[in-house]
Design brief:
Oligomer: single chain
Low-confidence stretches: 108-112, 114-118
Strand content: 5-15%
Number of domains: 3
CATH architecture of the largest domain: 3-Layer(aba) Sandwich
Largest sheet: 5 strands, parallel
Strand order of the largest sheet: 2-5-6-1-7
Number of helices: 18
Structural class: alpha/beta
Radius of gyration: 23 Å
Order of helices and strands: HEHEHHHEEHEHHEHEHHHHHHHHEEH
Shape: globular
CATH topology of the largest domain: Rossmann fold
Number of strands: 9
Helix content: 40-55%
Distance between the termini: 43 Å
Mean pLDDT: 90
CATH superfamily of the largest domain: P-loop containing nucleotide triphosphate hydrolases
Amino acid sequence: MVRNLIGPPVTGADFFNRSREQQELWDFLHRDHVLMLAPRRVGKTSLMRRLAADGPDKGAHAVYCSAADAPDELGFIELLLAAIARLDEGVHALEALRKSPVGKFLRRVKKVDVAGFGIELDENAVGWAAIGEALTVVLGRQSGQWLLLVDELPMFVLKLLRLDPDGARAREFLGWFRGLRQRSDLDDGVRWLLAGSIGLDAVTARLHLGDTINDLHIYHLGPFSEADADGLLQQLGTTHDLLLSDDVRSHMIRRVGWLIPYHLQLLFGQLRSHCRDEDREPSIAAVDAAYEELLTPAHKSYFDYWRQRLHEELGKPDASFALALLAAIARDESGVTRDTLRGVLSEHVGEPLERDEKLRYLLDVLEGDGYLASEAGRLRFRSPLVREFWIRRVLP
């Protein structure tokens, strides 16, 4: 039974559907490394964890880790080591790594963790690239296929950019990583699935490093279909003993609009609280009241990341340009044309060719990251909830 969980990734019985997406990803991973692009809160982390859990059934040694907490390149390798060491097969791989030419780096440790293996490397050690390459080679030579699922890789790349604003470290890391994936002797033994709440394609475009990810199969993870969204609402209602009629569920789906799991869970949770506080059954009016409550200042943390992430992903001055474009789009429910946005950007970028290139880049990022949708020649907010938040909490 699916519980109403808001915030953490869902696992086990709380993971709902995505059967088609799972099958597609396993099919792609048989022959390619994959870059999964998905806006925040679409459910990518939950899906990656499900793939990792299903690895044994698919004949793969699958491990998940998030690169968001890696402080630097060596820390990234440490995270991989720690994730791999959690599997019995990983213990054998690390033993083989100890016996490899880079084993001396693994002996210089400050902490011993899983299965007695040192997974925290000496901060004075050098050669993170050599350690990472040796680790991948060792995995490729073990029996069975390894699937390494790395979440939030773009956040790590942006961290490298903050450590070295001229971009040299980010370029070196991305180039090294592409070369690692391209090794022909590892083609069948190791597969990578990379993802992040910020698009790696947008980050590499910002750094003019699109060639460092052109070997990856791009997979777009989208929202639920209406049928799946309805099924989720039915299961949530059953789990929490809240009777949602067909009309109420249909209205919830219309109000959410962009049917990502997080927004559906948010509205259900708020409806549940509203009905409990008011001692009434769910109704269309109650759905509307719950929707309005989500947009009050008390709940702004649910949506404020949409504003904050622009500064993380785009930096200066592009974040301010994007905010100006989004302000113009938010004010018109039907959306605006590119010509209108070109006029908005003209206040910031005077040269016409530079302006057109900048507009194309920013709109690609904003569409790819889930802010915008293009329909009939007009750009509008993809999520009605995010648009309403923008109008009430972001616009001056």
